Amino acid sequence: MNAADTGWMLISTALVLLMTPALAFFYGGLVRSKNSLNTMMMSYISFGFVGVLWAVVGYSLAFAAGNDWIGDTSRIFLRGVGLEPQGTIPHYLFMCYQGTFAIITAALISGAIVERMRFSAYLAFISLWCVFVYAPVAHWVWGGGWLAKMGALDFAGGTVVHVNAGVAALVAALCVGPRRDYKKTPLLPHNVPFTLLGAGLLWFGWFGFNAGSALAASNSAALAFTTTFLAPMGTLFVWTLLDLARTGKPTAVGAATAIVVGLVAITPAAGFIGPMSAILLGGLSAVPSYFALLWRAKTSLDDSLDVVAAHGVGGTVGALLTGVFAQKALNGVADGLLFGNPAQLGIQFAAVGAAIVYSGALSFVLLKLIGAVIPLRADADAESVGLDLSQHGEEAYVHAGGSEASAY
After folding, report:
1. Per-residue model confidence as pLDDT tens digits over 321-371
2. Distance (Å, rounded) from C-alpha 124 to C-alpha 156?
3. H or E segment at 198?
4. Which residues contact 225 (CB under 8 A, 6 or more apart)?
5. Sequence ranges of the domains in the chain
6. The whole model's pTM is what?
7. What are φ and ψ of residue 278, in 5° steps?
């Protein structure tokens, strides 16, 4: 074991854990005030349900030996997981670090179905999803599974986290259906400063997400830290130019979204590409996500907080561009298309396609099974009064004149 590696991974685990409250603020500011607590709770509750299931069974399915498709049950209830080395850090610490990824990945999905999904149905979904969808895909890529053997590059979760969650979010939005007042009345953010705060804290935590994925205080961590520093800057630069060209008015919500898109896109590439490639990757990733967001707004798809455009599209673009910009001289693993290895891009396409098909199909099955037992969405009265009051019996903002809910 190595003390420096252990120290860095203790810090990285705490940084990634902070990303879930950061996501709560990012999402919570984007919804109407009557749904803000419910939206934030959809992130926070992942600590309890996904976190416990990760320790009980998810970690074993993701990282125990198993086969090419799924880990075995040798590590359920953390059997055989202790202070012995896992690489150069304690096994307990490796398990905790990977658990923070499972927690936030499940929470990401909530942005597509806020303001109308019944909280109990959501709990059932993310609990089953982390076991039957997230853990197997993590095993494919990081647990020695078939995508790892194929040579798929995913440094910190472009495919495992963002494509996986983005596809699940799309399926969930379609299964739950749109909000009852979608396209009938403006559905405006109630607290944009919350969203900016969340974006800033996400960027801060993302250094643990990406640089921590080196699993050591190493040159690889320093490279991932640098690319995570630069890529969102490239995205924000291009996104702002797009806003200026389209409306002449760059928005704060757009800036916050751009930062997240850049962070998502650099995640699979963080330890595999150089700094200038990171800026270029960040800038390129802005374009498809920006126009996917505009296109979605014209459709009947009510992906409330544009999880698909930010995470699904951003993760896909980042994963594919990893196959373009990867540089073996920096990462010691593989070159990409620009450095003489076009086959890597094909491998990246295969990995993204596998995650899309598996996550989409299993998410649909899980939602239909849950919907057969309990309703997926809140009833019309509950949605009208707000999910804070109807699902939790409390409100974010109570004014002197009485309950805020009376305004709805």
Report:
1. 999 999 999 999 999 999 999 999 999 999 999 999 999 999 999 999 999
2. 26
3. helix 192-211
4. 207, 210, 211
5. 3-399
6. 0.95
7. -65, -40
